[in-house]
Amino acid sequence: MGQKTNPTGFRLAVRRNWQSRWYATKKDFPKLLLEDQIIREKLMEKLKQASVPRIFIERASSRVRVKIYTARPGIVIGRKGQEIEKIKEELSKLTGKEILLDIQEVKKPEIEAQLVAENVALQLERRIAFRRAMKKAVEMAMTLGAEGIRIQCSGRLGGADIARREWQRKGRVPLHTLRENIDYGFFEARTLFGKIGVKCWICKKDAEPAA
């Protein structure tokens, strides 16, 4: 049986960094970890339309600094910054702590693995043929300077009775070379036939700093 490992956890401390940066005692750790999870879920739900690939959380005493990476900063900030103030208030009520929000724009969403997986999943929900959606995403990423890309869809593809797995790859995607800058994303498409999982691996050029 194949042994699976999470591509992000696999590269921690070599090519990737933690998505949360703080220290806590044994007693406080579970509570703060749950708080991080709640903040992420709340933001992802609220900013569905804003193309958010990741959220970085940093803590110092009673302050929580949340950095939101987004391809559409205008949606997050809102008119005259109204939207961002609302989000701050909601998170402060939820956690009972002072929240500081930073917005970081993602320059090339087409080579951001999480956003590519999300985009393919949304197309599957709109009943676009899975091969077509995958092919389009692969070509777009390669055009915009990715070294290689692999997309995999698993589930009842095309409404078939038996679930299967299909994938497309272009360029080089060396998944076991830890030095390589491999970005990974996963998203689930909720279709009438059930969930279809979309995984995406993108090998980026070394000129870009590791996330």
Characterise this structure.
The chain is an alpha/beta fold and 211 residues long. The protein has two domains: 7-105, 2-Layer Sandwich (GMP Synthetase, Chain A, domain 3), CATH 3.30.300.20; 109-203, Ribosomal protein S3, C-terminal domain (Ribosomal protein S3 C-terminal domain), CATH 3.30.1140.32. 32% of the residues lie in helices and 29% in strands. The protein has helices at residues 7-10, 29-46, 73-77, 82-95, 113-125, 130-143, and strands spanning 20-21, 54-60, 63-70, 98-105, 148-155, 164-171, 182-191, 194-203. A four-stranded mixed beta sheet has the order 1-2-3-4. A four-stranded antiparallel beta sheet has the order 6-5-8-7, covered by helices on one side. The longest helix is centred in the N-terminal third of the chain and has 18 residues, at 29-46. Part of the 30S ribosomal subunit. Forms a tight complex with proteins S10 and S14.
